Each structure stands twice: as structure tokens, then as C-alpha cells.
Amino acid sequence: MAGPNGCHNSDGASVFHNAQTGLATIELKESDEDGVILYETRATRRYIAAKQLMNWDAYATKIVYEAVVKPKYGWPHNMAEVARLLELLDKKLDAYGTLTLADLFHIPIAPRMAGGGIDIMTRKPNVAKWYKELITRPSWLAYSDGVKTTTSY
What share of the chain is helix, strand, coil (3-state, %, to 5)? Predict the structure, then answer.
């Protein structure tokens, strides 16, 4: 049953209007492949962002460490492990395409991969388009060469 300012839609969603903020909250029962059920749009967005970041970070940071950091310091590195991780990450990137707030978490690692000669961000058209949109953002361009001074911001 929806509250006094809400209504139910035929798809099971409830829409509530907040008189103080003027915003609507949409509560929609959603379930993912892990069986997690979320009822509120903000919680759903946070969960999806965290899951996307976890899927990215678990592979990308290991790839950069093995393929970029270790060689830089002359440490032994395992390119077979890099190839394995790239294959797994490549499958995760199939879902990428539309830039979202969660994608900003990719900025610290993705350019380091490219700098290390890893082409995973450019080998598929949808990922390449998404990545180009990400790294051409004015906020990233202002930072990409490092922070020179905070007074110019």
C-alpha cells in the first residue's frame, strides 16, 4: 500500500512525492543475479555503482601492478597472470557504454593501463567510445598532467 502522497503502478513500483524537497522517490523491487533485492532507487544506484567498481577494481589494479608498476622498478612480473586478468576484465567491459557517476572511479587506473601499453580500453568500439568520453572530460584534463597548483582552480 502506498502512503498518502504515493501511488502504485502496474509494475509494482511505488512513487512518493516529498513535499519538502519537491523530489519523487521511486521504490521498485529489483533483484540481480546474486539474489539481492533492492526497494529504493538511491540504494539501487549505490549498489550498482559499488558492484561495477568492484568488478573493475578487482582486475584493473592487479593488472596495473603486474604490467606497469613491477616492470618500472625492475621487479619480476607475471605476464601470463596479466593476460588472464585482461581476459576476465574484457568480459566485464562488454556492459560498458553510457557514462555514469560510477565510471569516475575508473580514472585513476585506466590511463595507467594505456600508459603501460595495455589496449583493453580501446579494443572494443563501445568501450573505446565510453573511455574517450571519460578521459576527455574537462575535470580529468585539468588533472591528467598532475596538480600543479590549487590556486588556478
Answer: 50, 10, 40
C-alpha cell recorded at residue 75: 621487479
Examine residue 3 and state whether it is found in any structural domain, yes or no: no
Our measurement of the distance from residue 150's CA atom to the centroid of its chain's CA atoms, rounded to an integer in Å, reads 27
Backbone angle region of 35, left / alpha / beta, with phi > 0 → left and psi within -120 to 50 → alpha:
left
CB 129 within 8 A of CB 96: no
Overall number of domains in the chain: 1
> pLDDT per residue over 52-64, tens digit each?
667 788 889 899 9
DSSP-assigned states of every residue in 32-94 = -TT--EE-SHHHHHHHHHHHHHHHHHHHHHHHHIIIIIHHHTT----HHHHHHHHHHHHHHGG
- Domain region containing 73: 48-143
Burial 38-56 (b: 16+ CB within 10 A, else e): bebeeebeeeebeebbebb
Per-residue model confidence as pLDDT tens digits over 10-22: 444 454 555 555 4
Domain assignment present for residue 5? The answer is no
